[in-house]
Amino acid sequence: MKLHCPICKGKIQYESQYLRSIFGDSITYKVACLVTHYRHYHVSYYNNGVSYVAKFYDYSVFKIKVNNRAKRQLLRGILKDPYYSPDDIINFATAMLQLQYNDEKTLEMINTIIVPKQKSTLDDFFDPIENES
Ligand SMILES: [Zn+2]
Predict the structure, then answer these.
(1) How far is the CA of 130 from the centre of ligand 1 (A)?
(2) 15 C-alpha vs ligand 1 centroid, how far in Å?
């Protein structure tokens, strides 16, 4: 599967049988693959650090931390990347909500991307005079 990484600024090839078995052929699968790609290619301390970290920390806790960092960096990246349309960005952020272990900072960032869109749709629905009471 070809993915567009906003950090590499181009197409990357990525497949994961494991992630596909969880998410199927969905946008969440693509987002999960990008997070994994980011962790391995854009976090220099990750590959080098795993054996070191394993001695002192719980690896799963470390991985969750790195993944959350990756998620936020990817969101920042796609916001600036002309490859992604405004709808792509909303879809990407929404799909990210399906991933496990989003921390507070990540959820906050996802919400700042998703919520304004929902609000404007809701506002269109109400007569502005009714909002004044
Ligand atoms: Zn990349």
Answers:
(1) 48
(2) 14
Measured distance CA(131)–CA(23) in Å, rounded: 41
| Domain parsing of the chain, residue ranges | 2-124
How many CB atoms sit inside 10 A of residue 83's CB?
13
**Amino acid identity, position 28:** T
Residue 133 parent element (H or E): none
Question: pLDDT tens-digit profile of 16-31?
Answer: 999 999 999 999 999 9
Residue-wise pLDDT tens digits, 41-56 = 898 776 666 666 666 6
E runs forming strands in the chain: 2-5, 10-13
**Separation of CA 72 and ligand 1 centre (Å):** 14
pLDDT at position 44: 73
